[in-house]
Design goal:
With about 230 residues, this protein is α+β, with helices and mostly antiparallel strands. About 20% of the residues lie in helices and about 25% in strands. The protein has one domain: Oxidoreductase, molybdopterin-binding domain (Sulfite Oxidase, Chain A, domain 2).
Length: about 230
């Protein structure tokens, strides 16, 4: 009986030891486990930075302009800038089509802003772009307008109140971390919806429509996401 107990105790000890070793050791040839998550995250993040991309700004670390994965509705879009125009229409005095260079001629603003994705990740990036108010004023904003609808080349849409955009001095960005906006991040333009969830941001913007419909629902809003897009910490 004593011999059996000793054998059983030895077996249990080996089993426990194997579990402890398994928890501590990262899988070979794959991603590291939570035990070394800091190194894993750092390595994955660094691999997404492009040559010349700024990694620090005003004493704070920046994230790569390219996110951890593409979550667009039709894949990454590649816009031919030679034929591209940005349409400003809807409740405006004179609809206009702006070229990429037209927008770049406006006063530039740089903002360090964090994008919060509903998937659970976030990215702090130094964005560079033009004020949306100045862009829309090129067409003349009519007094009845209260909503701005963003249309993208892939059919994506979303919206925000006009007052939110003006009071927040929100921008349409064409640069990220010191580089021209990469295709994956929305080249030529991404709507930077500061303090809103990521689905309120719009990449590859091709049209800005002024509307009097505050209940307008964009692509994800039609699929159940809150229209406010508020980020709650």
């Amino acid at each position: 009986m004593k011999k059996s107990v000793l054998i059983l105790s030895s077996l249990l000890g080996l089993i426990c030891l194997s579990f402890l070793i398994g928890c501590a050791a990262p899988p070979s040839g794959g991603e590291t486990t939570a035990a070394s998550s800091a190194d894993a995250v750092s390595s994955a993040t660094l691999s997404r930075f492009r040559e010349g991309e700024i990694k620090e700004y005003d004493g704070a670390n920046l994230d790569p302009a390219i996110g951890p994965r593409d979550n667009s509705i039709k894949g990454v879009q590649h816009v031919d800038i030679s034929t591209y125009t940005l349409r400003i229409d809807g409740l405006v005095d004179n609809p206009v089509d702006l070229t990429y260079e037209d927008v770049l001629k406006l006063d530039a603003y740089e903002r360090k802003i964090t994008l919060y994705c509903v998937e659970g990740w976030n990215a702090t990036i130094l964005w560079k772009g033009a004020l949306l108010q100045e862009i829309m004023e090129k067409a003349g904003i009519q007094t009845g307008a209260n909503t701005v609808i963003f249309h993208s080349v892939d059919g994506y849409t979303t919206s925000l109140p006009l007052e939110t955009i003006i009071s927040g001095q929100l921008i349409l960005a064409y640069g990220a971390n010191g580089l021209t906006l990469p295709d994956e991040a929305g080249y030529p333009f991404i709507f930077v919806a500061e303090d809103k969830q990521g689905y309120k941001w719009a990449r590859w913007v091709s049209e800005i429509e002024l509307s009097d419909d505050p209940s307008y629902q964009g692509y994800w809003e039609q699929r159940g996401y809150p229209n406010s897009g508020d980020f709650v910490q």
